Amino acid sequence: MANNQHLARQTAVQALYQHSLTGQLSSEIEGSFILNKKLSGKYQQFFLHLVRSIAPHTENIDKLFDQHLDRAKDQLDLVTLAVLRVGAFELAHQPDTPMKVIINESIDLAKEFGADQGYKYINGVLDKVAREVRGNQQA
After folding, report:
1. What one-character-per-residue DSSP string does the chain give?
2. pLDDT for position 138
3. Which of 5, 35, 87, 114 is deepest in the core (most CB within 10 A)?
4. Distance CA 8, CA 99 (A)
5. pLDDT at 1 (0 to 100)
6. Which domains, ranges and CATH numbers included, belong to the chain?
């Protein structure tokens, strides 16, 4: 089960990366990702929920982590931005998903797609976002 949910997150990061790179609307790119990754059922719905909730609202989602960055957002690579957006969105808007799961998934995505040590940066930023949006909730 978790593998399919991970695949949905992984695919969302790729779609958001493409959205940032090309400026295409999420509706223009999501179909090809669903076909290529063979997403179906609730995992397809989860992917669509992430992309449709994040892509048109990146400015608001970025506000969740902007203050926790040690550099200007435009100095981050697009993969890091995509992973941070998915993680921050889930921390703020998916209260049923445990913080630890979201942060661990984000670390895994950063290891898969990001720079060599980028996962450490993402871990640090999302840990601060988690404390801010979820307070003292257990990780």
Report:
1. -HHHHHHHHHHHHHHHHHHHHH---HHHHHHHHHHHHT--HHHHHHHHHHHHHHGGGHHHHHTTTGGG-SS-GGGS-HHHHHHHHHHHHHHHH-TTS-HHHHHHHHHHHHHHHS-TTHHHHHHHHHHHHHHHHHTT---
2. 55
3. 87
4. 18
5. 41
6. 2-134 (1.10.940.10)
